[in-house]
């Protein structure tokens, strides 16, 4: 037990130690050394995770580590502890594994940045908080990590702080996440007041043993928790921060989208599956929000010209599909897609970073093209990941996305249709990205063309590893023979999305999904390869394309409803309420000053005046006594 405690502390604290070293000594150590220290810290956590994963796989027993009693208020008792079970270790594998690859990639990608040591310290801190979130044995420890990754996203999105637009994007992410976090806090308060605990295991036991459970109040808690998940995992209406988060360096985008922050909402809902299973109305809301988010984000992704913005809306769309599965109680299916998505989305973001790196910062796909020969490793790895996200057999995304669509078909035909359309659009915009970036003639400047070259090994090696995982990652959960479902079985009271054994219906659905994906790819091929179309310049975009390009004007609507209304209210209080109150307060001060000024005239040092006042006072007292009698 003591060894488990020590190893758990190493797992959590190794990235934090890397953060401290780079914060205090990184600049003097030099860029390469600070990068190596930051990467090694996460690799250590990954190695410990592998040890625990091997142990859990053999014993099938969760490891509980309690460090100390933390909070004791009345009958509420909370420990500071960690829970290492099937779910947390699965998350830790890709948080630390993909996190290690992203750190390794960053050594080369950020080498020309003067604040490279600071970048690695922030990355390490990000991973530390995500590990804390995942490993926490109760909701309060989760909340520490939850707020920590929000802080780190703010620091990293606005890392190039001399650009005001990047600062605005960082503030937007921070504020929108605070809105969701309020919902999470309220949900925690409700659960704490109902069961006098926030510990996962105790909560599960208390809910299972309750005889007169207050279902409406529990449903309210579940809804508030889901609002928190909407903020962190970018679902409608709190999704607009995530595309703007592309302001940060590309490794940050990969870390946020693939391995850490946006998966936190999925993790929390899955961890509290025993709460959400008792709130079917809330589950319906989750499924509907997930499906609508998936479709809305996919339509916006159709016309974006910034390579990272396309991938950002792709992430929002894929997260919507995960929530669609969660809404049907198919937690293991959602987790499956989280894992495969981590593989191919990390590869896609790091691949886009390789392209941007090769073009000296250019992100507009209209100024790319023809990079296939100059950057072959980047091209092939991104092609594999694009095939995976498009659901092409037999890449990883084919298996996980099919599971989600099959689950939706068995629960709600309308939501299945919405999810299927979103999947077709995904295939289209991903291959639109591939054709515009890698095929035909180069559309950039002659200077860019002259300097075109493949990225170095520190960038291409992580891409190749992730491409392999994007290819074979789906093998962990094959229909009728799912290692993942068996591995996660102890966590769920019921398996809502029961394993889909292949029958006529399943083969038909699979065929429809594959045909839809291939149709999307074919349309992109005709439009952007055969016809060699290039998107219009911003000023020439019109009609529906303009609406989609401007993201349905949701940011503008939010600006009118919330930002401007708050500004108007603030100006009203400033100009009238605060001014009036200030006048009143200052008026009281002036009256007091005047009374003091007049009063001090009596204190003039004249003994005669003092005796006269004394006699007047004495006469008044005697008069009062006689009159009272």
Automatic annotation (TrEMBL):
Residues 137-426 form the NADH:quinone oxidoreductase/Mrp antiporter transmembrane domain. The keyword Ribonucleoprotein does not apply. Its main location: membrane. Residues 70-120 form the NADH-Ubiquinone oxidoreductase (complex I) chain 5 N-terminal domain. It is a multi-pass membrane protein. The chain crosses the membrane at residues 7-26, 32-53, 89-107, 119-137, 182-201, 213-231, 252-270, 282-303, 310-328, 334-356, 377-395, 415-438, 458-478, 507-526, 607-627. Keywords: Membrane, Transmembrane, Transmembrane helix. InterPro entries: NADHpl_OxRdtase_5_subgr (IPR018393), ND/Mrp_TM (IPR001750), NU5C-like (IPR003945), Proton_antipo_N (IPR001516). It is found in: Endomembrane system; Membrane. This is NADH dehydrogenase subunit L. It comes from Flavobacterium circumlabens.
């Amino acid at each position: 037990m003591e060894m488990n405690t020590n190893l758990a502390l190493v797992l959590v604290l190794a990235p934090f130690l890397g953060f401290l070293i780079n914060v205090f000594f990184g600049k003097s150590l030099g860029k390469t050394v600070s990068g190596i220290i930051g990467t090694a810290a996460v690799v250590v956590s990954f190695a410990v995770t592998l040890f625990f994963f091997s142990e859990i796989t053999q014993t099938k027993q969760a490891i509980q580590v309690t460090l100390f009693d933390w909070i004791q208020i009345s009958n509420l008792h909370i420990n500071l502890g960690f829970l290492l079970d099937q779910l947390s270790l699965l998350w830790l594998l890709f948080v630390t594994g993909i996190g290690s690859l992203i750190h390794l990639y960053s050594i080369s990608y950020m080498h020309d940045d003067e604040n490279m040591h600071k970048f690695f310290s922030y990355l390490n801190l990000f991973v530390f908080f995500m590990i804390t979130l995942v490993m926490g044995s109760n909701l309060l420890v989760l909340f520490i990590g939850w707020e920590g990754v929000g802080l780190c996203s703010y620091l990293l999105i606005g890392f190039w702080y001399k650009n005001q637009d990047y600062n605005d994007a960082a503030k937007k992410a921070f504020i929108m996440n605070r809105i969701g976090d309020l919902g999470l806090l309220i949900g925690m308060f409700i659960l704490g007041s109902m069961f006098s605990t926030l510990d996962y295991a105790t909560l599960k036991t208390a809910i299972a043993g309750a005889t007169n459970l207050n279902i409406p109040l529990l449903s309210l808690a579940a809804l508030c928790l889901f609002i928190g998940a909407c903020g962190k995992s970018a679902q409608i209406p709190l999704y607009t921060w995530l595309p703007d988060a592309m302001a940060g360096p590309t490794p940050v985008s990969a870390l946020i989208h693939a391995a850490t922050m946006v998966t936190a909402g999925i993790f929390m809902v899955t961890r509290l599956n025993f709460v959400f299973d008792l709130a079917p109305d809330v589950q319906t809301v989750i499924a509907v929000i997930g499906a609508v988010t998936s479709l809305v984000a996919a339509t916006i992704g159709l016309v974006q010209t910034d390579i990272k913005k396309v991938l950002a809306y792709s992430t929002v769309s894929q997260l919507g599909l995960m929530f669609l599965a969660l809404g049907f109680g198919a937690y293991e299916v959602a987790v499956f897609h989280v894992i495969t998505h981590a593989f191919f989305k990390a590869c896609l973001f790091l691949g886009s970073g390789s392209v941007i790196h090769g073009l000296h910062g250019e992100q507009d796909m209209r100024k790319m093209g023809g990079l296939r020969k100059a950057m072959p490793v980047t091209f092939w790895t991104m092609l594999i990941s694009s095939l995976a996200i498009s659901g092409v057999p037999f890449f990883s995304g084919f298996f996980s996305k099919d599971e989600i669509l099959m689950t939706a078909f068995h629960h709600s035909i309308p939501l299945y249709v919405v999810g299927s359309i979103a999947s077709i659009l995904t295939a289209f915009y991903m291959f639109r990205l591939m054709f515009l970036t890698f095929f035909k003639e180069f559309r950039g400047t002659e200077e860019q063309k002259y300097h075109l070259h493949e990225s170095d090994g520190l960038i291409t090696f992580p891409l190749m590893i992730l491409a392999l995982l994007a290819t074979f990652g789906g093998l962990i959960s094959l229909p009728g023979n799912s290692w993942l479902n068996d591995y996660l079985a102890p966590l769920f009271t019921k398996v809502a999305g029961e394993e889909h054994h292949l029958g006529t219906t399943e083969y038909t659905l699979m065929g429809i999904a594959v045909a839809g994906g291939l149709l999307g790819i074919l349309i992109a091929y005709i439009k952007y390869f055969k016809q060699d179309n290039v998107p219009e310049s911003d000023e020439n975009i019109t009609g529906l394309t303009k609406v989609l390009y401007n993201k349905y004007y949701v940011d503008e609507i939010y600006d009118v409803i919330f930002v401007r209304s708050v500004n108007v209210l603030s100006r009203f209080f400033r100009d009238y309420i605060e001014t009036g109150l200030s006048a009143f307060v200052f008026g009281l001060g002036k009256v007091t000053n005047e009374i003091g000024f007049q009063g001090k005239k009596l204190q003039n040092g004249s003994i005669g005046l003092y005796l006269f006042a004394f006699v007047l006072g004495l006469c008044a007292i005697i008069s009062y006594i006689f009159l009272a009698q």
